[in-house]
Design a protein that fits this description.
- By secondary structure, this protein is mainly α.
- Among the domains are: 1-89 and 125-249, Bacterial muramidase (Helicase, Ruva Protein, domain 3, Orthogonal Bundle), CATH 1.10.8.350; 359-415, Muramoyl-pentapeptide Carboxypeptidase, domain 1 (Orthogonal Bundle), CATH 1.10.101.
- It contains 19 helices and six strands.
- It has helices spanning 7-13, 18-31, 42-57, 62-69, 77-84, 93-100, 103-115, 117-127, 131-142, 157-167, 172-188, 211-217, 233-247, 275-280, 315-323, 327-340, 359-371, 385-397, 408-415; strands at residues 155-156, 197-198, 256-259, 272-274, 297-301, 310-313.
- The strands form two sheets. The protein has a four-stranded antiparallel sheet with strand order 3-6-5-4. It has a two-stranded antiparallel ribbon with strand order 1-2.
- Helix 9 (131-142) packs across helix 13 (233-247) and helix 12 packs across helix 13.
- The chain is globular, with a radius of gyration of 23 Å.
- It binds calcium ion (CA).
- Residues 220, 222, 224, 226, 228, 232, 235 line the site of calcium ion.
């Protein structure tokens, strides 16, 4: 989740959601053929030395630069590996949403809403962004900060960005800009070198801000004098809210509505009309309710074509896209926010790949297996070895083929 949704990645590559991203991925793969070895790399050291005058023009002191690159001798091989591997390539809208909007993310969001109730109230008051949207962004970006529990997956940002600037032709310009911004952050004293961590593409902290976004929007909400999106949840959440507010978030408004599309609706895809006009054309909310503000403008999105739910997106949907320029991302945040706030989920089904179970269905399998004494692991819908072994044990005992696969048939058997 952490790597896949880094806002920098989407911002740089997705002009119209996943399609553009997939196209960009193919290009990226082609450009990354000649990768330097991860051994001590004289070319890389030279690149770092040669880049100092560029950084100096942006006000970076020699002492900051030295400190930033102390001990950095070769490109970060993991950054190069991750730059080559882009899981979006294989993921459809249904899977993307399903992996981020499910029992665990909703429940954790509601727990966090309680834990940070006071801070979230202050943030709502100051920035006018509803707490559930901020919580949903936190979940999608870093699993509510869970990324920090896996320090070996984090990258030292100056090294990661220097690696991309040096070795990834397609991202070089982006990486140079972000590297200068990262050096400014270091120079500002908001964070120490050993805490300046992020994703392979430089997305940092609880809410995965790239360095330039940090410089534009970071705030010190807890008042300790440092804008610390890595260690301070209040700072990170207020920073996300500040980005939305500064881009024009409309307080008290939702992001959009799920609608049932009439026949022939796809010709209106991407069109903007008032909700009253959409109503007239036959677009209805599945719950039968009318639109509370029929004069509002909305854009029709049909992320899964004519076989899935359609949506009329309001201005705030496009504000979420300022965070991360992908329709699928913004829809996911909106749907998760609604669920955290206690509203129901989608009324219409996504066209789900055949035979694939949702996170909640896999979670249900774990619940059954635990109740039957086969499973003692986490109830989270994620199928590691422990879950697979439990499935195998149950299958053997029940006369099924012990393949360990969480299937619909298995779920049906367990339900009985
Ligand atoms: Ca602070």
């Amino acid at each position: 989740m952490f790597e896949m949704t880094s806002n920098s990645l989407f911002r740089r590559t997705a002009k119209s959601g996943l399609t553009a991203l997939i196209a960009a991925t193919v290009v990226a793969a082609a450009l990354l053929v000649h990768m330097p070895q991860a051994a001590a790399d004289a070319g890389f050291r030279k690149w770092i030395n040669d880049f100092y005058p560029v950084a100096a023009k942006s006000g970076i002191k020699k002492s900051t630069y030295r400190k930033a690159f102390k001990g950095v001798r070769e490109p970060d091989p993991e950054v190069l590996r991750k730059a080559r591997y882009q899981p979006e390539f294989k993921i459809d809208t249904w899977s993307y949403v399903d992996r981020r909007v499910h029992f665990t993310t909703i429940q954790t969001g509601q727990e966090m809403a309680k834990r940070y109730a006071r801070v979230l109230s202050q943030i709502e008051k100051r920035y006018g962004v509803h707490r559930s949207v901020i919580l949903a962004i936190w979940s999608v970006e870093s699993s509510y900060g869970n990324v920090f529990n896996y320090p070996d997956r984090l990258h030292y940002v100056p090294r990661a960005l220097a690696t991309l600037a040096y070795a990834d032709r397609r991202r070089a310009k982006f990486a140079r800009q972000q590297l200068i911004a990262a050096l400014k952050i270091l120079q500002s004293g908001n964070i120490t070198t050993n805490q300046l961590t992020g994703s392979w593409a430089g997305a940092m902290g609880h809410t995965q801000f790239i360095p330039t976004s940090y410089l534009a929007y970071a705030v010190d909400h807890d008042g300790d004098g440092r804008k610390d999106i890595w260690n301070s949840v209040p700072d990170a959440l207020a920073t996300a809210a500040n980005l939305l507010r500064k881009n024009g978030w409309r307080q008290g408004k939702t992001w959009g509505y799920e609608v049932r599309a009439p026949r022939g609706a796809s010709k209106y895809k991407g069109k903007s009309k008032t909700l009253a006009q959409w109503s007239k054309l036959g677009f209805k909310r599945p719950n039968g309710k009318s639109f509370p503000r029929p004069g509002e403008k909305a854009v029709l999105k049909m992320p899964a074509g004519t076989n899935g739910p359609a949506f009329l997106m309001l201005r705030n949907f496009f504000m979420i896209k300022r965070y991360n320029n992908s329709d699928t991302y913004a829809l996911t945040v909106g749907l998760l926010a609604d669920r955290i706030a206690g509203y129901g989920g989608l009324q219409q089904n996504w066209p789900k790949p055949k035979g694939v179970l949702s996170m909640d269905e896999r979670r249900e399998i774990q619940v059954h297996l635990r109740a039957l004494g086969y499973y003692r692991g986490e109830i989270d819908g994620r199928f590691g070895d422990e879950s697979k072994n439990a499935v195998k044990a149950f299958q053997s005992r029940s006369g099924l083929t012990p393949d360990g696969v969480p299937s619909q048939k298995l779920l049906n058997t367990l339900r009985r």
